[in-house]
């Protein structure tokens, strides 16, 4: 058995039972949990140089298009890169962490146990903050977005992508004024991205604003 498969065998024994107890399904390197409109993903991503992996956390909503797509993803096959909100499983105060596959079964098990421990400490609470729709996804107002600073979403979200997601969420729950304000804020900073401009203008048009000249 090669190092990666030996490591995944330990993930199956050590980490997967914790995920299944939390409602995730899946196997190998990707696990999904769908609760109403909310989708959570835990995915192990190997290094391009081999020998180690990181653990990626994804949060998505069933009605949002996948990253780089015009349509919502299939809930049975959605992958972490498709998710609107993404983060790496890492210790508090850090943004990244990698675990070696190890060369022995014991080393592989130690890495699997370390991932499990950090998921219980950091990953599970992360998902808990984004577990209920719409409450957990409507905490940011247009004014909060405009001011900037720390927001209750993963730090990796760009201003434009977050503005678009928040506009779509606000539109979904009937907050048309907020949807328009988020879309106008995003449109003002979108740059040359034609598809994003079109998405913002669609929301602005649907929510009644005439300020489409940008």
Topology:
Elements: H1 3-14, H2 16-21, E1 25-27, E2 30-35, E3 38-46, E4 52-61, E5 85-88, E6 99-100, H3 105-128, H4 142-147, H5 159-172, H6 176-189, H7 194-206
Antiparallel strand pairs: 1-2, 2-3, 3-4, 4-5, 4-6
Report on the structure:
With 214 residues, the protein is α+β, with helices and mostly antiparallel strands. It folds into 2 domains: 3-128; 138-206, no CATH class. Helix content is 42%, strand content 16%. It has 7 helices and 6 strands. It has helices at residues 3-14, 16-21, 105-128, 142-147, 159-172, 176-189, 194-206, and strands spanning 25-27, 30-35, 38-46, 52-61, 85-88, 99-100. Strands 1, 2, 3, 4, 5 and 6 form a 6-stranded antiparallel beta sheet that branches. Helix 1 (3-14) crosses helix 3 (105-128), helix 5 runs parallel beside helix 7 and helix 6 (176-189) packs antiparallel against helix 7 (194-206). The longest helix has 24 residues, at 105-128. The chain is elongated. It starts with a helix and ends in an 8-residue tail after the last helix. The model is unreliable at 210-214 (pLDDT under 50).
Low-confidence stretches: 210-214
Which percent range fits the helix content? 40-55%
* Measured distance between first and last alpha carbons: 58 Å
Number of domains: 2
Measured by DSSP, the beta-strand proportion falls in: 15-25%
Quaternary organization: single chain
Which H/E pattern describes the elements?
HHEEEEEEHHHHH
Q: Figure out the total of helices.
A: 7
Gyration radius over CA:
19 Å
Mean pLDDT: 93
Computed structural class: alpha+beta
DSSP, total strands? 6
